[in-house]
Specification:
Structural class: alpha+beta
Distance between the termini: 49 Å
Helix content: 25-40%
Strand order of the largest sheet: 4-5-6-7-3-2-1-8-9-10
Number of strands: 16
Shape: globular
Radius of gyration: 27 Å
Largest sheet: 10 strands, antiparallel
Order of helices and strands: EHHHEHHEHEEEEHHEHHHHEEHEHEEEEE
Length: about 425
């Protein structure tokens, strides 16, 4: 299970039947945490019907796909694992599925990006799923057999099960990407955070539930609580994340296309109250209602604005951060090499070949550089070449492919061209760019 720093809105599709407007919803909603960025509950239909619709949709795009072969593969897997994915797993889930999505302070999240796995774990602490369960024992047994079939690492402590790929066996939190789940009395919880699972399995204490959030209560006091469906987006919290992040404010303020979203998020119409929507069955049909800032025309509009503007700019900012980190590493490594050359009279030679930059560890040691960087911001190996008189340190950039033969092409000192698919090469005291022919 992986998480994104994107902000979207999804459906919260169930509240307790028969409650009057303004009453507190009960049931699965009480397993969700207070004040997430967004939250939702979905009614789950018949699993066989859902799988059939999925296969019908897929075969529209791939007519050569044989649904009967897919059914045969499912039956073969059932035989191999010793349980039925339909009867013992899917059929035991429901009828409601709830989720919460949250984020820590953005600058805190960005500071941990050098260790993406740890950042994902940290970001997941308020994010996860809670689902109704019909037969918890059958569900847990089938999950265990399925994990064993795929040779996953499974461990259980105090009723919480940890599942991870085999290569992560023994990895310590928070640097892994394990999934945690637990099955309790009528409910199951799933998250990349064991804390979420532990706190969600039993109904949360008063004061810590979704329905106890000040903004949630304010929004849904205007909507029918006996809803078949409901959605909620916490706009005040989004504003708080923005105002508390120098990174996001700088990103939005420096981008002309992003400025409208910055102005909108800061406006009273956007931040005074969150957005809610309900779907109520009535007279054989469905009546939908929304409540929140008029400027957004409902929750879906706010999600569209965020998805269209914030997410692309956030991704662009991440790429720029990776590029800046790589350029800084190249400069620092070059400073250490030049100090070494002053003391030794020459740069460490490579025998005419490119070598991994980490091969310089013995030569530079802690005297010239505390730690020799091995990879660039995208995780590709940094490489080094020197004949003793000149040197080059290079990153292939985002695509991981060198665009030029840097030992043959003529170069001049200059700033590297814009990202992302460009080589970053530092040599003889400055960044190098190819001579234009």
């Amino acid at each position: 299970m992986r998480h994104s720093t994107s902000i979207c809105i999804a459906g919260l599709l169930w509240l307790a039947a028969g409650a009057a407007p303004g009453q507190e919803p009960v049931g699965i909603v009480n397993h969700l945490p207070r004040d997430p960025v967004l939250a939702g509950v979905v009614e789950i239909g018949n699993p066989d019907e859902g799988l059939g619709k999925l296969m019908e949709f897929v075969t529209r795009f791939d007519p050569e796909l044989d649904p009967t072969a897919w059914e045969a593969e499912m039956a073969e897997l059932d035989q191999e694992i010793g349980c039925s994915l339909r009867g013992d797993l899917l059929a035991q889930v429901g009828p409601e599925l709830a989720f919460a999505f949250d984020l820590p302070p953005i600058d805190q999240l960005m500071a941990g990006m050098e260790d993406p796995a740890a950042a994902v774990v940290e970001a997941s602490r308020g994010t996860g799923l809670v689902v109704g369960v019909r037969d918890g024992a059958a569900l847990a047994a089938c999950l265990s057999r399925l994990a064993g079939h795929f040779e996953l690492t499974v461990a259980e402590e105090e009723g919480i099960v940890r599942i991870a790929p085999p290569e992560q066996a023994g990895a310590e939190l928070p640097a892994d990407l394990a999934v945690y789940y637990s099955v309790g009395d009528g409910f199951a919880a799933l998250s990349a955070s064991p804390e979420f699972v532990a706190s969600a399995l039993a109904p949360r204490a008063a004061g810590g539930r979704l329905i106890d959030g000040e903004d949630f209560r304010r929004v849904f006091s205007h909507l029918e609580a006996s809803a078949k469906g409901l959605s909620y987006l916490n706009l005040p919290k989004i504003r708080g994340l923005l105002e508390g992040s120098e990174f996001l404010q700088g990103m939005l303020a420096s981008n002309q296309e992003a400025r409208p979203i910055l102005e909108l998020i800061r406006s009273p119409d956007f931040t005074g109250m969150g957005v809610g929507a309900t779907s109520v069955e009535i007279d054989g049909g469905v009546r939908r209602m929304t409540y929140g800032p008029r400027a957004l025309a409902g929750g879906a509009a706010s999600a569209g604005i965020v998805a269209a503007v914030v997410i692309p700019n956030f991704i662009d900012a991440l790429e720029k951060a990776k590029r800046q980190r790589t350029m800084a590493d190249l400069r620092n490594l070059a400073v250490a090499l030049e100090a070494y050359a002053v003391d030794s009279g020459a740069y460490p030679e490579t025998g005419g070949e490119w070598l991994p930059a980490e091969s310089l560890t013995d030569a530079l040691g802690s005297l010239y550089l505390a730690e020799v960087p091995a990879t660039d911001g995208w995780g590709h190996p940094l490489v080094y070449w020197s004949d003793g008189v000149s040197y080059r340190i290079a990153s292939p950039g985002k695509d991981g492919q060198m665009q030029h033969d840097w030992l043959a092409v003529a170069t001049v000192d200059g700033a590297p061209p814009p990202p992302p698919e460009t080589d970053l090469v530092f040599g003889d005291g400055s960044f190098q760019v190819p001579v234009e022919e």
